[in-house]
Amino acid sequence: YSSKLLSRAKEKAQKELYGSSKDGLDRLIQFGERIKKEGGVFQVFHDSSLVITGIAYQTEDMVKMHKAYGDYVNQDGTFGTNVYELTLMPTVVVDAMGKSVISSINLAHSENNNDLLKMGNALGLYKENASYMTDGGTAFAVVAEATGMNHIECLHHFHNDLTKGQLGISHKERSNLTK
Description:
Blueprint: H1 3-18, H2 25-37, E1 41-46, E2 52-58, H3 60-69, E3 72-75, E4 87-88, E5 91-94, E6 100-108, H4 113-123, E7 131-134, H5 138-147, E8 150-153, H6 155-164, H7 171-177
Parallel strand pairs: 3-7, 7-8
Antiparallel strand pairs: 1-2, 2-6, 3-5, 4-6, 5-6
Helix pairs in contact: 4-5
């Protein structure tokens, strides 16, 4: 194989996928415009130097699902999922059939309450007295307090923290809880 041939093939594939800009920003904006045109919500957040600090969106179907089933919301972050180095924080609701359904996509530099509140308020994600299940991260508890939601820590995350000794309890107490 020729390295020049491979390099040209890679460049061609990247151009087809991301468009002419190296960071794919033009495709991202086109994607957002299409979502808004189809009845969804798309918002890009940036700092004073125009560096993107967050992206939040809902398709029209996501908006409908969240309005119908947003009395129970699950949210968590996943790092390292995109070229913008933003943390992916999908919002999940449970529909009438008991199925988990993504009701928004949120991207920010980290799981922090300021970005979560800004994005959630832009999308109308937070309902007073709704249940808000998350991991034990403090940002989510702050969001719940600020929006009047009932914060519940995910049992899976709680169990993992318990077995790793990250809950601030003694080994003896931890042993009694895991019996």
